[in-house]
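Sanity check

After download, print the first record. It should look like this:
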Amino acid sequence: MLIGHYCFVLLYQCKLYLMPFISGDTIPVSHHVGAFDMAEASLCSKMLLLAAGTGLTPMIKIILHNVARDKPTHLVCFNKTQSDILWREELDSLASRGSLQVTHVLSKPDSEWAGLTGRINQDMLLQFLSPESKDTTFIAACGPILFSQLCLSYLKKMDCDDKRIHIFQE
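Expected structure tokens:
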């Protein structure tokens, strides 16, 4: 057990869950990658990471691991607006090394946005995961509950093997 002081980044919506706590209370904290097994993911030649909002958090360690090993990785970040995109400069820097591809998808883009728009759907997933590549790609998803449920549902409809899918619980 790690004992010490921690700094938390909280979404506004999440503050409701912390209201019953007062200074000095103890809260359970899990490891940021949960039950994710990097060894299992390493068996595939590519990775597709689907992150909505702060669902990017567990993906960062995976990205750093994969970039260091030059493993082809495609990160698809879903956010409402450009200003909501987390760690954008760092992701751009990592992508410039070659093995990481980053795609941003906005649900509420401004008129300047030239990238993808909308919410996760099966047609969009097919842009990132072709039927030919689904057997060699490990897929991880993290975001709000509905996002994660939709990802899993669409991946199952695409006949992706459960062993090649990991859904983080945000």
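If your output differs, re-run the checksum step. Summary of this record's structure: The beta strands are 46-52, 73-79, 100-106, 116-117, 137-142, 165-167.
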